[in-house]
Design goal:
Order of helices and strands: HEEHHHHHHHHHHH
Distance between the termini: 36 Å
Number of strands: 2
Radius of gyration: 18 Å
Strand order of the largest sheet: 1-2
């Protein structure tokens, strides 16, 4: 069986996504849930059965068009890294920092992006991922291309880093750490979008709903790996709380979510606010360590 490890940052290739229609993105995400192409990621479930998550590119295209503007206060402070003591907490926050790095890069906040690359490298080193960050002189290439403002090259380098990280974790039989990192990045992405929503940007709502709809797939992957890390069960409880709020959204009830066009759906503001508040609560608990 072909194994594709979970990619760890839902926004890593955000700026490379094109201007396809919302319907095209929805179809692409649906397709990616059913295949194991290079544009998807997967974690092995039962023998002969893969639980597949869409690639970061397919998720990120929705957010790019939906107005994910830069709010610096939504970043997780690099000073918080001193509070991260366990492998589990470090992995979650490596996902958070990697998502913040890409968020800065997307908004051409190059100096901040460089700082978050360094922060990610530091915490990654504590997880035994030094070789991933040092492979192919990635850090130096990142700085050189950043100085020249080459966004496409920067995103390519980040993708290389992602691949190297997955390879290191696979070699050490720590695929569950990839899942934890991915989940941290996924929650941080939703947190950033929730902050944009709170600032008054209603256009971000369909993208939030689209990404939260992946929660069942992430839970399925975590279920298969929960015996590898005792804290995965508590992470699943947090995601289940997000799922509960998602399932309470009246506009989604009795609807075929594969067919529903979120961009043309009217959502109850109170319900969306409650969902975003839950996401914010869970993310804030993660970054506290």
């Amino acid at each position: 069986m072909k194994k594709n490890l979970l990619q760890f940052a839902a926004l890593l290739v955000l700026a490379s996504c094109g201007g396809d229609s919302a319907d095209s993105d929805k179809a692409a995400i649906s397709d990616s849930l059913e295949t194991s192409s290079t544009n998807t990621t997967a974690a092995v479930a039962d023998e002969g059965d893969d639980v597949v998550l869409p690639s970061s590119m397919r998720i990120a295209g929705i957010f790019k068009r939906s107005g994910l503007k830069f709010i610096e206060t939504s970043l997780n402070s690099l000073d918080n890294s001193k509070n991260y003591k366990t492998t589990y907490v470090k992995a979650l926050n490596l996902g958070v920092y990697s998502a913040d790095m890409a968020y800065c890069l997307l908004n051409k906040q190059y100096a901040l992006s460089k700082n978050y690359l360094k922060g990610s490298k530091d915490i990654g080193g504590e997880l035994g991922l030094n070789s991933a960050f040092e492979a192919n002189n990635l850090a130096k290439r990142f700085e050189n291309n950043m100085n020249q403002g080459k966004d496409d090259s920067l995103l390519s380098i980040i993708s290389d880093l992602q691949l190297e990280t997955d390879l290191v974790l696979e070699k050490s039989n720590n695929q569950h750490i990839s899942t934890i990192i991915f989940t941290g990045a996924w929650i941080e992405t939703l947190f950033s979008a929730s902050q944009v929503y709170k600032s008054g940007e209603q256009n971000i709502v369909p993208a939030i709903i689209e990404q939260v709809s992946l929660v069942d797939n992430i839970l399925a992957v975590l279920e298969k790996q929960k015996n590898s890390e005792t804290n995965i069960s508590s992470l699943m409880e947090s995601l289940s709380a997000i799922k509960t709020n998602f399932n309470s959204i009246s506009a989604l009830k009795d609807k075929d979510l594969d067919e529903l066009d979120y961009s043309k759906t009217t959502f109850n503001k109170e319900e969306i606010t409650k969902l975003c508040e839950k996401i914010i609560e869970i993310r804030n608990s993660i970054v506290k360590g």
